[in-house]
Amino acid sequence: MMVGKEDLGLGLSLGFPQNHHSLHLNLSPSLIPSSTDSCSSLHNSSWNDVSAPTDANSESLPAETRSFLRGIDVNSLPSTVDFEEEAGVSSPNSTISSVSGKRSEREGTRGDEIDIERACSRGISDEEDGDTARKKLRLSKDQSAILEESFKEHNTLNPKQKIVLAKQLGLRPRQVEVWFQNRRARTKLKQTEVDCELLKRCCENLTEKNRRLQKEVQELRALKLSPQFYMHMTPPTTLTMCPSCERVGNASSTVDPRSHNRNVPINPWAPAVTISHGPFDALHHRS
DNA sequence: CGCCGAAACTAGTTTACCTCA
DNA sequence: CGTGAGGTAAACTAGTTTCGG
């Protein structure tokens, strides 16, 4: 069953600037106990493990042959083997790292477990029993919904949660794990798009602000070249004159009263114009 | 403190399936 | 109705990080 983007709940905390960091609130891998759980270690390593020897063969085989062989692997063992195998049987020492060079040591003793893993690769729901071609499992709407709910609670799973969820959904823990990996990737991609859009807006606002300031500078320069008009003109745009000290400042800012008694030369063009900094100023300024 | 192995993770890719012109 | 293009999601691979012994 096809699950549309809208069904993925990608907008769960992807709103806009206010929510900008909310996505990360649930990102607490450090809170998740590191696992010595044999289940996760088994399923985690098994596929990488299997792929190593078969890849060597498959490189020299045509795609159809590879597909055929995979189909045989998937379907040649009883589908009744479920993830209980991975859930409780293996020992911590049976885990295999993805780090290269460590596999061969365990290949001999792990062969059977690998076959079991491969037998499980199609998942527990065997709608297409008898189909020799390896087919990709499409999760049902219910399965996706449950996974989404779980993802909302925590976007990472500890091994226990993974197994429970897999059992609940009738999937292998590995499938749940992959789903969460892909889901995190989608979330990150979505967040990146949001960030990109936000930066684009900031850039546009800053460009506009820059344009206005340039225009203001031009006005001020024109005034400077026409001193005979100087006293009769109101200061351009946002600049205002302090009546007591005749300093020019931003309309929104107040002139420091401590400077009122100083003998300050009238120089409205110099430093009193303050420019706000930061990209977000541009968003809120000049409404 | 550095090293090693295991586990979990990310980024990128492949593959199967679906929709639509 | 068949087909190819394009999109999406499931699954995979390689490399990195983290953590405990």
UniProtKB/TrEMBL annotation:
<keyword id="KW-0804">Transcription</keyword>
<dbReference type="GO" id="GO:0005634">
    <property type="term" value="C:nucleus"/>
</dbReference>
<dbReference type="InterPro" id="IPR006712">
    <property type="entry name" value="HD-ZIP_N"/>
</dbReference>
<feature type="coiled-coil region">
    <location>
        <begin position="189"/>
        <end position="226"/>
    </location>
</feature>
<dbReference type="InterPro" id="IPR009057">
    <property type="entry name" value="Homeodomain-like_sf"/>
</dbReference>
<comment type="similarity">
    <text>Belongs to the HD-ZIP homeobox family. Class II subfamily.</text>
</comment>
<dbReference type="Pfam" id="PF02183">
    <property type="entry name" value="HALZ"/>
</dbReference>
<dbReference type="InterPro" id="IPR017970">
    <property type="entry name" value="Homeobox_CS"/>
</dbReference>
<feature type="compositionally biased region" description="Basic and acidic residues">
    <location>
        <begin position="102"/>
        <end position="120"/>
    </location>
</feature>
<dbReference type="GO" id="GO:0000981">
    <property type="term" value="F:DNA-binding transcription factor activity, RNA polymerase II-specific"/>
</dbReference>
<keyword id="KW-0539">Nucleus</keyword>
<dbReference type="Pfam" id="PF00046">
    <property type="entry name" value="Homeodomain"/>
</dbReference>
<feature type="DNA-binding region" description="Homeobox">
    <location>
        <begin position="132"/>
        <end position="191"/>
    </location>
</feature>
<keyword id="KW-0805">Transcription regulation</keyword>
<keyword id="KW-0371">Homeobox</keyword>
<feature type="domain" description="Homeobox">
    <location>
        <begin position="130"/>
        <end position="190"/>
    </location>
</feature>
<dbReference type="Pfam" id="PF04618">
    <property type="entry name" value="HD-ZIP_N"/>
</dbReference>
<feature type="region of interest" description="Disordered">
    <location>
        <begin position="83"/>
        <end position="133"/>
    </location>
</feature>
<dbReference type="InterPro" id="IPR050762">
    <property type="entry name" value="HD-ZIP_Homeobox_LZ_Class_II"/>
</dbReference>
<protein>
    <submittedName>
        <fullName>Homeobox-leucine zipper protein HAT2</fullName>
    </submittedName>
</protein>
<dbReference type="InterPro" id="IPR003106">
    <property type="entry name" value="Leu_zip_homeo"/>
</dbReference>
<keyword id="KW-0175">Coiled coil</keyword>
<keyword id="KW-0238">DNA-binding</keyword>
<dbReference type="InterPro" id="IPR001356">
    <property type="entry name" value="HD"/>
</dbReference>
<feature type="compositionally biased region" description="Low complexity">
    <location>
        <begin position="90"/>
        <end position="100"/>
    </location>
</feature>
<dbReference type="GO" id="GO:0043565">
    <property type="term" value="F:sequence-specific DNA binding"/>
</dbReference>
<dbReference type="InterPro" id="IPR000047">
    <property type="entry name" value="HTH_motif"/>
</dbReference>
